[in-house]
Amino acid sequence: MHALRARDDIETLQAVHIQANADFLVGLDSARVASFAWPVQRVVSAAACFDRLEQSYASDPRSQLVVRRLRGETAGWAWLLADIAVRARVADGRASVDSPELLAANRMLANIVTQLVTLRDAQTASLRAASDSATRHLVIERTVLATTALAACFLFCYALIAHYRARLARQSARVIASESERRFRQYFDHHPLPMLIFDVETLSILAANRAAASQYGRTRHQLCSLDMAALYAQADLPSFLRDLHALLAAATTSGSAGVCRHRHSDGTPVYVELSYHFLTYGHHRACFITAVDVTERKNAELALLLRSRALDAIGNGVLITRPGPSGDVVEYANPAFEKITGYERPQNAGGDHSARPETPGLWQQIGTAIAGKREATTLTKSRRANGTEFWYQLYVAQVRDESEKVTHHISVVSDLTELIESRDLLVRQARRDALTDLPNRVTLRELIDAAILEGHEFALLFIDLDHFKDINDSLGHGAGDRLLQEVARRLSASVGSDGVVTRYGGDEFVTMLKGSTGDAELSALLARVTQTLDEPVQIDDMQLRVRMSVGVSCYPQDGTDCETLLKHADLAMYRVKAGGRNGVERFAPSLAHEAAQRIALSHKLRNAVEHNGFELVYQPQVEIRSYRLTGVEALIRWHDADFGTVSPTTFIPLAEDIGLISSIGEWVLQTACAQAKRWEEVLPELRMSVNVSPSQLTSSDFGAVVRRALAASQLAADRLELEITEGGLVAPGALPTLRALHDIGVSIAIDDFGAGYSSLAYLRSFHADRLKIDMSFIRGIGSSRADETIIGAIIALARNLRFEVVAEGVERAEQLAFLAEAGCEIVQGYYFAAPQPAANIPGYAASLVGELHELQK
């Protein structure tokens, strides 16, 4: 009787715990969590059961100890539920609790129920043994008392009573078990944490609650048709099996596997925090798991790790500091910061380093920005740890918390040394001639304007070397360049401090003489110059005598502005050339004849514009690596019946002066686009490059002119490229027009790059597609280390700014090899082909394929 009652008490306690937990969870929806789980009646019932169990096990100290421990754990669990209820957050009529606390309560309940099940199974086994013993005694008694009817009747009655009680006990056990199963199912199905039960032998999923089905994007039925392996990626499955086997081998009833990666039904990863509880489920040796979704936390950790690695990898220096008692303490310095400054991770940005005399710039500015409690940015120069100077841009920003308190400062240091040095090089190049290192025409104009503004007298000597073209044609451009360099040196030596020698372009020099412009002074200087140049110039194994034509204009007698003075000196120089060269001519009114000729040429030019008297030829642009024709440059030609073939360098400036350049430019654009369209079938990827003068760019309707040409020819915009000089890039209003054309697909190339005077600011504000290296630098390959260095710098600058590079004026294999090694992609010049008529281009493109095959043999 005591054993049967003990089993009843154990099953009652199971039901009480399950019902208490179920009522607690139901209370989550009604925001009355504290009033549901452990009412007084339930507490009294549980205490009575524990009291009877202690009496039932009075002869079994070990089982009695288990009962007392269970009483204590039940009390602890009830207090935990009460604590959770007290701290539950109520919103919209529902209570919300933290998952970690709910998970701890579930673990305690699972442990209590597991011990009760174990105790019940032991008691059931004891009852079965007692029943077997009673049966044996009953047989003996029946045999002994078979002789007496009274004994038989007694035994019969006893048997009926025993049978009735046994059947009643079984029915009671089934009712209790059914009720326990129902309450467990309710607890399991409605629990907010995802829960699964799986067979530890086959890994088959035996049960899944609604939260698990929602978390994995499947129905419960679908989950129960899978095994646990289906929830893992192939790479993660071995780790799960290893953890499971380790827990089984340890013979523990519960455990945790930390954070694992499961899979949603759509294949996306779901990071879960797993806890295990081993139990018997039906006839299976099973494992009960809770899988709390921590994907958001894991993704945040991964994102933080990614940002940390990105900071370590970027090229800019990053320094993170926080306020400390004696200055801002460095919490983080990435490798780039250490590389840029040369210092290992500093300990105090606001104190020690700001006092160091060898690093006054960087640390002082960081400390000043931090102390000023503001954002700051600056471009300046400092010294590295090894003493070398470097340019850098510094940006310091604050990091604030929710209360707007500054918690950290972030300093970003960008090393701009190479960029600044490249800029300085280009600025120098814009003001000085790369070949001779003399001031160029830009500097000359500035000097003239300054002297006029100050009212000083001066003279201009416009010097042109006679027959220089013949030297270039016979001895090559290298010899011509060396001759120009020697002439520049001698002119500078002869003029000395009396003036400034500038290279105006090509074989032209302009000398500006300060002071008196009387005939005596000019004659004396010209005598010195002539005497200096009379000495032969040694070029390779040849001695060359230099002859020059010189035109002179004086301020203020011959003009009151820079353009007039240069024009008059130029007219006087051409008068010398017309008269046989090798002489000196001062500007005089007698030069009206030249002006008349110019008027005649202007009339002819207008007639050519009206009657389409021009033609275009096309110079190929070839990709070095593949020998593929990538584009052509359209070049205008004009042949007049009276003047003959007139050079573009003659009639283009004239067209700009008399207002015809827009008409000529529009004709060139329309003709070039139409020709590119006609080539489309045989040369579908060919790019057509058209030169555009600065005066065209300043025209308000230039964009419309380009669009009309594209529309009339039906040529795709990305097949057209406009070549502008550096002067065109800085022309007023040019940038908005170029941006608008670039937006519709038209490519922009900066022509004669390095010979002009644009700044890096323009390259930054307008991202062109290509840079065309000026041919004056290309001529210096093999003979001028300076030219080769500048070419390398331009190519490196273009690569960093993501421009393509085209080298024009390539005439020798040596130049081609140097450019290819330096990283230049495309070349143009007589090495491949002179400008060609349109009919020759398709055949030339085909011939390049043959040349490539020959080179590859």
TrEMBL record:
Keywords: Membrane, Transmembrane, Transmembrane helix. This is Diguanylate cyclase (GGDEF)-like protein/PAS domain S-box-containing protein. Residues 456-589 form the GGDEF domain. It comes from Paraburkholderia atlantica. The keyword Nucleus does not apply. Residues 376-428 form the PAC domain. InterPro entries: Biofilm_reg_signaling, EAL_dom, EAL_sf, GGDEF_dom, Nucleotide_cyclase, PAC, PAS, PAS-assoc_C. The chain crosses the membrane at residues 144-164. CDD domains: EAL (cd01948), GGDEF (cd01949). Pfam families: EAL (PF00563), GGDEF (PF00990), PAS_9 (PF13426). Residues 598-849 form the EAL domain.
